[in-house]
Amino acid sequence: MLTFALRRLLMAVPTLLFISLVIFLLLELAPGDPVADMPLTIPPEVREKIRISLGLGEPMHVRYALWLYNLFVTEPSYWIDALFGTDLAQGSQRIISFQTRAPVFDTIAERMPQTLIVVGMGYVVGVLIALPIGIISAYRQYSVFDQIGTFISMVGFSVPTFVTGVMLIVVFSVWLGWFPSIYDTTLQVTDWPSFVKQMRQMVMPVFVLALYNAAQISRYMRASMLDNMTQDYVRTARAKGMSERVVILKHVLRNSMIPVVTVIALGVPGVFTGAIITENVFKVNGLGQQLLLSIQGNDAPMVLTISFIFAILIVLFNLIADLLYGLLDPRIRYD
Amino acid sequence: MPDRAAPVLDVRDLQVVFRTRGGEVHAVNSVSFHLRPGELLGVVGESGSGKSVTMMSLLGLLPSPPAEIRGGEVLLGGRDLLKLDAESLRAVRGRRIGFVFQDPMTSLNPVFTIGNQIMEPLRAHMGMDRARATERAVELLELVGIPDARRRLGDYPHQFSGGMRQRVMIAIALACDPEVLIADEPTTALDVTIQAQIIELVKDLREKLGMAIIWITHDLGVIAGIADRVMVMYGGQVVEQGPVRALFADPRHPYTRALLQTIPALRGQRDRRLRVIEGQPPILSASPSACSFCPRCGHASNRCRVENPQRLPHDGLPTGQGHDSACHWAHSAEPAHA
Questions:
Q1: Is there a contact between B111 and A235 if contact means CB atoms under 8 Å apart?
Q2: CB contact under 8 A, B90 and A328
Q3: Quick one: B240 exposed, middle or buried, by C-beta within 10 A (0-12, 13-18, 19+)?
Q4: Residues A311 and A178 placed together within one structural domain of the fold
Q5: Fewest 10 Å CB contacts: which of A100, A233, A273, B11?
Q6: Is the pLDDT higher at A211 or at B272?
Q7: Whole-structure pTM over 0.90, yes or no?
C-alpha cells in the first residue's frame, strides 16, 4: 500500500507539471492585457513600462520557469520562515498578483478560510444528510419517503445553485428578513451573539450547497444499497438470525459504502472549485470568487496559481479515493 | 433411525403465492412433509419446482412483498413458525434451523472476515463473549475440515476456494447446534470432486452431531447416496414421497420415472440417447385444478386435465409415512395396493 501510494505520488509530478504548462499556455494565448483596466489617460510609453515592471518583457519560457521556481522554492521557504523564524527566503521575489501587487499566496490565505468554512460545511452537511436518506430510501424502496427523496434529489440536482440561491435570498432575506443576503467576512466570532450572527449568514449558502451535494450523493448511496440488498450474503445474514439492523447497517452498508466513499472523496476538490457561483451569489469572498475576479482582470499569476492548486487537489484526492477503496475492500490489493 | 419418533419439523398444507405485476404465481401448493430427528430428507425436482421457495418460506426468508404465505402450518417442536413475530422467528433462524445456500462464492459477505461471520450467530444467539466465540469458531472450522483453523479466522472469503467456502458456510449453519439443517443445493456450484468431499463431510457431520437434514438438489444421484427419504416436487407440489430404496426401486409417478431416466449410466452399454423431459415446468397463476405435470406426461388422461390428483399411499401406510404419490394413472393402473 505504501509503495503504491509513493509510486502514485511520484507519477503525479509529471502530470502536474504538464497541467501547469497547459494552464500557463492557455493564459498566454488568451486575449487580454493586465494593464487594459487602467485609466486611458496613462500614456502608451508608461503603459509599456508598467508591463515590463510586471515581468511581461521576458520571453514566455523564462516567465514559466520563474513561476515554477517561485512556486516550489521561494514560496515554501517563506512558509518555513514564517513557521520557524528562519531566513531562508532572504527577501527574494514572491509570486505577485498583477492586480493587487500583493503576494498571491497572501491573498489565497485570506480567502481560504471563507471557502473552507462555507463551502466545506456545505459539503459535510450534504454528505451527512445524503447517507441516511440514501439508506432509508433503499430500504423502503418506492415508499412515500423514497418518492419524496427522489423528487427532492431531482430538484436539487437539476436546478442550478444560482437559481436556488437567488430564490432563498428573495424568500428569506427580502420577504422574511431572517438571514442576511451578503456574507460579512469582517465578522469576528468572539462571543455568543457574534457566533449566532456567523451561523445566520452561513445558513443559506451552506443550505444551497448541501442540497446540491446531497442530491447527488444520496442517489449514489441509494443505488449502491439497492445493489447490495439483493446479494446472497444478505440472505445468509438473515438466515443466521441477524436482526434487520445488523443486516442493513452492518452487512449491506459496509459493502455499499465502498463506491460511495470513493465518490465522496472525489468530490472534495469540488469544495474548492465548484462553489464559484454560490460564492458569488452570496458575496462570500472565497477562493472561487477570487478566481473569477482574477480572470476578469487578466491576473495571470493569480489564475495560474489558484488553478494549479485545484489541479493538485484533484490529483491528490484521486489518489486518496484509490487508497480508500483498497482500505474498504479487502479484495483490492496494491502490490 | 428412530422410525416412529415425533417429527422435529412438521409442515402441513403450506401455500406460498408471489404477487407480481403479471398476476399471482402459486409457487407452493399445499405442501406437507415432516422430518424426524436425525433423518436426511432429500428434496428433488427441476428448477422452478418450488423446492427452494418451500424451504425459504419455512423461516420467512422470502422477501415479502412479493411473497405471501397463504396458509398452512410449520411446526418446529410443536410451535407454529408461521405464527411467530419477527423477533421470535429470528431466534429460530440460525439457532434451531441452519441454512446452507447454493453458491458459496456469493453467500459469504466479501468485506468481513470468516471469523467475524462465524461468530455473529454465536454471539447473537448463544450470548458468547469474543473469547468463547473465537474458541467455538476454531472448533467449528476444524469440524468441517479446514486446516490451520485459528489462523484462517482472520482471512476473507476471497482467500478461500469454492469448496472451502462451502465448508465455512456449513460451519456457520452448524454454529449453534441446530436441530435441523437445510441445505439448498449445497453442491450444485461446485465441481464433482469437491462435491463428493462436501457430501462426505455432511454424512460425517450427521453421524457426529445427529441433526436432521433437508437436502435440496436436482441431482438424483446425490440423493440416492445419502438420503433416508425422498420427496419429489413438481409445480409447487409434492408428487411422490417415500423411503429412498422404495422410491428408486419402484418409482410410481411418471415424473419421478422420467427424472430417473435422465441420469446417464456410467457403466454398461451407452447405446441409447439420454432421455429428456420435453417442455418446461409450469408457472401456476392459480392453485392447480388439474395435474400440473399432465402437459408433459405420456400417461395423461382426461381425468388428469380436470382433477388435481391427491397424494395417496402405495403401501397402506398413512400418507407421508410410507411411499405415496399424487397421480391418477399410478393409482388406477395398480389398484391392488391396499
A1: no
A2: no
A3: buried
A4: yes
A5: A100
A6: A211
A7: no
Number of domains comprising chain A:
2
pLDDT at B337: 44
Q: What pLDDT was estimated at residue B214?
A: 93
B123 to chain A, any CB pair closer than 8 A? The answer is no
Which residues of chain B does A238 touch, with a Cβ-Cβ cutoff of 8 Å?
61, 93
Partners of residue B57 in chain A, C-beta under 8 Å: none
CATH (domain of B258)? 3.40.50.300
User: What DSSP designation does B6 have?
Assistant: P
Tell me, what DSSP letter sits at residue A120? I
Closest by Cα among A85, A77, A35 to A55: A35
Question: Are A161 and A249 members of one domain?
Answer: yes
Beta strands in B116-271 (DSSP E): 180-184, 212-217, 229-234, 237-243
Chain A nearest-CA distance from B61, in A, is 7
**Structural domain includes residue A12:** no
* Tens digits of residue pLDDT in A148-170: 999 999 988 898 888 988 898 99
ipTM for the complex shown: 0.85
Domain assignment of residue B20, given as a range: 9-87+234-263+274-337
- Give the pLDDT of residue B213: 93
Please check whether residue B289 lies inside any domain of the structure: yes
- Distance between alpha carbon B228 and the CA centroid of its chain, in Å? 13
Q: Which amino acid is at A20?
A: S
Do A262 and A193 sit in the same domain of this protein?
A: yes
Residue B301 placed within a domain: yes
Residues A240, A264 within the same domain: yes
Predicted pLDDT of residue B84: 85
Contact (CB, 8 A) for B210 and B38: yes
Name the residue range of residue A83's domain: 35-97
Task: Specify the number of domains making up chain B.
Answer: 1
Shared domain for A89 and A117, answered yes or no, is no
pLDDT at residue A136, rounded to an integer: 93
Supply the pLDDT for residue B272.
67
Mutate to test the interface with A, among B114, B120, B126, B180 (most CBs of A within 10 A): B120
